[in-house]
Every structure is written in structure tokens, then in C-alpha cells.
Specification:
Elements: H1 2-13, H2 18-39, H3 43-51, H4 53-80, E1 87-92, H5 98-110, E2 114-120, E3 123-128, H6 141-150
Antiparallel strand pairs: 1-3, 2-3
Helix pairs in contact: 1-2, 4-6, 5-6
């Protein structure tokens, strides 16, 4: 959060000098620690998110690739002329945190051909355009990446 504040400070000033940087560090430090007291945010939480940046980048890359693959699969179903055989699949995942479950539900919904219908505890209900789209969804690459991010 401090780095974001300092970056905004530098962008709004339009130039970088020693005076601007020193004054920016002072102002951003005061704002950062005031925000920590008011919102319950902490330096520990900041480091928690900073350490997960590489995982977030990897997750975004995998999500992009899975969206491309799912688009191709949906196009094949449409162009083949075969009737889709929709299915609703219920499965459990070993994710502990709410944010990991939300990320998984969003990833499932963002990939064409599948949509998360509900999440109740650790049980996901997913609708798939074709039953083969739902194969292995409970052990997908998203689940393994999110488990790593939770640690």
C-alpha cells in the first residue's frame, strides 16, 4: 500500500527530485500508518500480498490460457453441429479461505462453457455446456494454484 501511495505521489508531482522523494516518503508514511490504524490494515498484511504477486501473475496467465482453450472448445461444439449435453456438477475443493473460493468461482465462470451456479461452504455447483467440460474441474490447475497462494 505504501508503494502505491508513493507511486501516486510521484505521478501527481510530474517530476522526480530528491526533495519531492523525501517529502513524498514522509507524507506517504503518515498516510500509510494512519490508514493502518483506522482500517486495521498492517505491514504484515502488506507483505502477505506482496509475497503473492508472482502467484497472482501466474494465475492470470493460466486463466488467460484456459479462457483461450475453453473458447476453442465451445467453438468446436458450435461448428460441429452436435447438440450440447449440459450437465450440473457438484464437487468439493480443499480451499480454506473465502477469497480463494471466490477466485475459483470467478475463474470457472470466466471460462466459456462453464458457470458457477452456487458456492456453499466448500461445495461448488457448476453448470457446464457439455458434460466433458466438467471433467476434472475439481482438480483443475486453478485449484492447485490457489492452494499454493493460500500457504
Amino acid at each position: 500500500m505504501f508503494l502505491m501511495l508513493f507511486s501516486v505521489w510521484l505521478i501527481l508531482n510530474g517530476k522526480i527530485t530528491l526533495e519531492i522523494c523525501l517529502f513524498g516518503v514522509a507524507v506517504c508514511s503518515v498516510i500509510y500508518f494512519a490508514a493502518c490504524r483506522v482500517t486495521g490494515f498492517s505491514v504484515k498484511k502488506d507483505w502477505f500480498f506482496i509475497r503473492r504477486i508472482p502467484y497472482g501473475i501466474a494465475y492470470a496467465a493460466v486463466l488467460f490460457w484456459e479462457i483461450v482453450k475453453a473458447n476453442c472448445a465451445v467453438v468446436r461444439v458450435i461448428l460441429s453441429g452436435r447438440k450440447p449435453d449440459p450437465a450440473i456438477v457438484v464437487f468439493s475443493v480443499p480451499l480454506q479461505t473465502e477469497w480463494a473460493k471466490v477466485l475459483l468461482a470467478n475463474a470457472i465462470t470466466l471460462t466459456p462453457g462453464t458457470i458457477t451456479v452456487s458456492v456453499e461452504g466448500d461445495r461448488f455447483r457448476v453448470h457446464a455446456l457439455c458434460s466433458d467440460f466438467a471433467d476434472g474441474i475439481d482438480s483443475s490447475v486453478f485449484v492447485s494454484l490457489l492452494k499454493k497462494m493460500e500457504k
